Amino acid sequence: xxxxxxxxxxxxxxxxxENFYAPFEAVTLAKDTNPSKFDATVExxxxxxxxxxKADQMVRGTVILPHGTGKVSRVxxxxxxxxxxxxxAAGADFVGSDDLIEKIAAGWTDFDAAVATPDxxxxxxxLGKVLGPRNLMPNPKTGTVTADVAKxxxxxxxxxxxxxxxxxxxxxxxxxxxxxxxxxxxENYAAALxxxxxxxxxxxxxxxxxxxxxxxxxxxxxxxxxxxxKVLTEV
Length: 235
Prior knowledge:
By secondary structure, this protein is of the alpha/beta class. It is 29% helix and 20% strand. The strands form three sheets. A four-stranded antiparallel sheet has the order 7-1-8-9. Strands 4-3-5 form a three-stranded parallel sheet, with helices on both faces. The chain has a two-stranded antiparallel sheet with strand order 2-6.
């Protein structure tokens, strides 16, 4: 087992490992136990009662966090003509078509999200081996393959996150920064939780959310009560 720092051990000592905290308590404790000196990210992990190997139990979606993620996303848009101009006006960081496709095919992925107009997906689809593993491939299910590129850019810049259950049935996403008020973190958690619950596959049987954990980037995990699905922004 890797040796933990003194700051981590001190933080972990404040957490009752046997307790399941209400969401507001958990994010408050995450802020208090952050061992980093920088403004760390606050993350959530869910263990879901699904079998992601089965197509009818795949959980994937997007949600716009009411208070954003605290991170300014770099958005790339594959578009031409008027759509490209609309993307630039909306604040996209990189806009193009064949030029960007060639650059990415060579290995460049210095951006956080990608959007594409439907007419260019035939070309963009060839980048699957580069963008797929990094979860950067535009997808109509997440609203990133669209003719309304301006809205897609605004949504991403405004705090839109996407999530997808991994092969171990875990779901990870960001709900903000340590500098956020606990109320804002709890409200972001609530928004994401509501969408995850809405996406529960009908084929999923038994307990859907089996485990929930909140943690900062280098901080200890805090167990959240998985039975609390109506999140209040106070203890």
